[in-house]
Amino acid sequence: MLDLGWVELAVVGVIALLVVGPKDLPKVLRTLGQWARRLRGLAREFQGHVDDMIRESDLDDLRDGVNTVRGRNLGRTLNKMVDPDGSVTRDLDEIDRRARQTGPAAPSGGRGGGGRGTVLDHGTDDPTGPADAPGPHAPGTPNPKSKAED
């Protein structure tokens, strides 16, 4: 701000006392305080308007950026970044074409695999194998717990 120390303030006070006089000095200081308060209020208001203009400017920039992104085809841009010469796309298309020509690799078991991959169907959802495979708890074999309970 003004960078006044105690010595400078004392000199200003003595000069004000000599120029204005002791009788009117409180009125002058009160008036100076009111003017300083008004100046601070005006400066605060001006700073608020400047901040609003900056905020609106930032919002306009942000709005322009969003509109730019909306106008771009992000899928095409991403595809160009990953596969700039198109070789991966050509290879995948060739693999897909060959897979459609040869058909499914294994019988689909009547579930309608549609040639989209190999479907192994053993007639059960059990990951251990088909239901008719012999196992320790298959039907027709005695349960080990029942022997221990007898």
UniProtKB/TrEMBL annotation:
Name residues in a coiled coil. Answer: none
Which residue spans traverse the membrane?
Answer: 6-22
**BP GO annotations:** protein transport by the Tat complex
Which compartments is it annotated to reside in? Cell membrane; Membrane
> Pfam families given for it?
TatA_B_E
What protein family is recorded? Belongs to the TatB family.
* Membrane topology classification: Single-pass membrane protein
Tell me the classification of the organism that encodes this protein: Bacteria, Pseudomonadati, Pseudomonadota, Alphaproteobacteria, Rhodospirillales
Briefly, what is this protein's role? Part of the twin-arginine translocation (Tat) system that transports large folded proteins containing a characteristic twin-arginine motif in their signal peptide across membranes. Together with TatC, TatB is part of a receptor directly interacting with Tat signal peptides. TatB may form an oligomeric binding site that transiently accommodates folded Tat precursor proteins before their translocation.
Where does this protein have compositionally biased stretches of type Basic and acidic residues?
88-99
Keywords attached to this Swiss-Prot or TrEMBL record, sorted alphabetically, are: Cell membrane, Membrane, Protein transport, Translocation, Transmembrane, Transmembrane helix, Transport
Q: Which GO terms describe its cellular component?
A: TAT protein transport complex
Protein name per its UniProtKB record: Sec-independent protein translocase protein TatB
Q: Specify where the region named Disordered lies, as residue ranges.
A: 77-150
Task: Enumerate the GO terms in the molecular function aspect.
Answer: protein transmembrane transporter activity
Q: Which Gene3D superfamilies match?
A: 1.20.5.3310
Which superkingdom does the taxonomy of this entry point to? Bacteria
What is the annotated quaternary arrangement, including any partners? The Tat system comprises two distinct complexes: a TatABC complex, containing multiple copies of TatA, TatB and TatC subunits, and a separate TatA complex, containing only TatA subunits. Substrates initially bind to the TatABC complex, which probably triggers association of the separate TatA complex to form the active translocon.
**Main localization of the protein?**
membrane
Low complexity compositional bias: what residue ranges? Answer: 126-135
- PANTHER family on file: SEC-INDEPENDENT PROTEIN TRANSLOCASE PROTEIN TATA, CHLOROPLASTIC (PTHR33162:SF1)
